Amino acid sequence: MVLSLVDKYFFTIPIIYRALISLGVILIIALLAYKLKQLTISGAFAATIMGFTTLFLSGTSALMLYLFFFISAAFISKSSKRVRGVEKIHKKGATRDYKQVLANGLLPLISIVLYRITTNGVFLLTFSATLAEACADTWGGDIGILSKEPPVSILTFTRVERGLSGGISMLGCSSSLLACILYGIFYYSTFNSTLSGALLVAAAGFSGCLIDSILGASIQVHYIDEETGKLTEKEKDEKGNKRRAVRGIKYFDNDMVNFTSGVFSFLLSLSLGLFLHI
């Protein structure tokens, strides 16, 4: 209700002032994220572009859906990785660079732009669904590694190293589902949608999250750590020497997996949204 009133006023002011306000607000948020080491310089730049475009075109309501993902993901990622010490497996840490920001945020941005061009509400559906998938993937992975039970491969259901892409746990799956349900609620309340639309957002987001795990367990590139004999996503060791790829497709790293699973959620929500006239 409050955000709706803010947006109603926001879109009545002259366009130049709206642009300046949008840029100022987003720059403050991006600089704060950089100061807190949640974003690299390149990540802050990419986030500024996405945040400005979203706020300028669609107001605070849409921006809040973006911010919920980035803030919750940043907090959970940094906290959980410190607890379990999976930095030896993951290619990148909790500080996100531009590739990570784009992998998770580009499709929602495209959705917002398409909505403003076409005024077709289905793109608000894809906006929410792709953010739901990104949030679900992050929550599932970073909360899942806190599980007392060891994860299993989504393909073979055999035990895998904690933190390894493609591994799932009951705690991780539950966290992913919760994130998708929350985004369904956000979509329903923010855009005055129907219950069927909210359910579709949650379903498309969770489906994309499952695809992410399947891709991580099958075609995502993994390397062998010669010292420990374990799989890792890091292409080089601490001395800068290249590691040998032993699984997956070269260059198809975690960022590509995240983007591809987002594409799946985008296309699924778009096709079903058009078919069901949501």
TrEMBL record:
Belongs to the TMEM19 family. GO terms for cellular component: membrane. Its main location: membrane. The chain crosses the membrane at residues 15-34, 39-57, 63-80, 101-118, 164-186, 198-219, 256-276. It comes from Bullifex porci. This is DUF92 domain-containing protein. It comes from the Bacteria. It is found in: Membrane. The keyword GTP-binding does not apply. Keywords: Membrane, Transmembrane, Transmembrane helix. It holds the Pfam family DUF92.
